[in-house]
Amino acid sequence: MSRSLNLAVIPGDGIGTEVVTEGLKVLDAVLTGTDVKVGSTTYDLGARRWHATGETLPDSVLEELRGHNAILLGAVGDPDVPSGVLERGLLLRLRFELDHYVNLRPSRLFPGVTTPLANPGEIDFVVVREGTEGPYVGNGGALRVGTPHEVANEVSVNTAFGVERVVRDAFARAQARPRRKLTYVHKHNVLVHAGHLWRRTVERVGQEFPEVAVDYLHVDAATIFFVTDPGRFDVIVTDNLFGDILTDLAAAITGGIGLAASGNVNPDRTAPSMFEPVHGSAPDIAGQGVADPTATVLSVSLLLDHLGLTEQAARITDAVAADLGERGTSTRRTADIGDALAARVTA
Ligand SMILES: NC(=O)c1ccc[n+]([C@@H]2O[C@H](COP(=O)([O-])OP(=O)(O)OC[C@H]3O[C@@H](n4cnc5c(N)ncnc54)[C@H](O)[C@@H]3O)[C@@H](O)[C@H]2O)c1
Ligand SMILES: CC(C)[C@H](C(=O)O)[C@@H](O)C(=O)O
Ligand SMILES: [Mg+2]
């Protein structure tokens, strides 16, 4: 039976447009010859639109996005737009409005990839980062701004509902993996309100998953083990901000930010999920054609997997593994990597 996919594409800013072009190339290639047809609509959102119209994410566009099977996003953020305008008004608004409560960030050290770690061992874990709560919700404010007596608050919001649903998702993912291990990361020795809610929730939900071994790390200690013993991790569940920080570190130990993929997943499928590289718009290299599109290509693989196209998703991951294995120290341009991956998935 033939199937059509209706994708929304938001290239965004900086290298976002460059890497998304390559991601779509590989998507087209992997679906060539199958009975899956892809239609995509590209949305002009980001710095250009903000400069032209003052808009970040009009309600009408948000409603249109809801009608798609999935969203592919490049990156947002621009040095000429005040920090936070696009990040909050576009990217986070999408994650919140579309209820992307599971921010899925897998990390794997592919054979042949250079890592800064002396003894990396085998690295293959996934961070389940909470995506709709924590200090990201915008529950803050400032008084006496710019004076010596300024007060600035950014309150972390953790709800029983929000913590339970992401913890349950992480347990289910751990249960489905061979090692069946879940590490939850927080800072409950200091953040006693949020931390204890997370701890109690993990203990309670864990009773439904007796085969999953659970351990806990304070977030500061977790950073040590990311460097000294990353092989100990299988599934990690943590809050929005800790997850943000840990996943850049995870990228760094597995070959760099240019390889790190993510999915902003709505597991209940009440709205489309959104797939994007972990990295940002990289203004320092934008326009030079040197950004690594691999993170975006791997995000396309996560997208296909989410839509049930597991064979095509695996074909992309295998192509990336093979490509990375042969890359060595060669420095290829963005489009060359995209072309090489497209050729591999077509074969
Ligand atoms: N999901 C997103 O859209 C997202 C994520 C992170 C940052 N941002 C935004 O992006 C802008 C820049 O942020 P930043 O500099 O902190 O983070 P960044 O991820 O854009 O860049 C950090 C460093 O990594 C390098 N890098 C990033 N992606 C790369 C790739 N694919 N290939 C090779 N090198 C790559 C950059 O050149 C830079 O040196 C800011 O506006 C920030 O808010 C957006
Ligand atoms: C740009 C920013 C809002 C975003 C985040 O903090 O989630 C980014 O750092 C990421 O990791 O996707
Ligand atoms: Mg980040």
Automatic annotation (TrEMBL):
EC number: 1.1.1.85
Localization, UniProt: Cytoplasm
A GO CC annotation given for this chain: cytoplasm
Gene responsible for this protein: leuB
Cofactor note: Binds 1 Mg(2+) or Mn(2+) ion per subunit.
Highest taxon of the lineage: Bacteria
Keyword Nucleus assigned: no
Residue numbers binding substrate: R95, R105, R129, D220
Name of protein: 3-isopropylmalate dehydrogenase
HAMAP family per UniProt: LeuB_type2
SMART domains referenced in this protein's UniProt entry, alphabetically: Iso_dh
Pfam families the UniProt entry points to: Iso_dh
Binding site for NAD(+): G280, S281, A282, P283, D284, I285, A286, G287, Q288, G289, V290, A291, D292
This protein's UniProt keywords: Amino-acid biosynthesis, Branched-chain amino acid biosynthesis, Cytoplasm, Leucine biosynthesis, Magnesium, Manganese, Metal-binding, NAD, Oxidoreductase
Annotated family: Belongs to the isocitrate and isopropylmalate dehydrogenases family. LeuB type 2 subfamily.
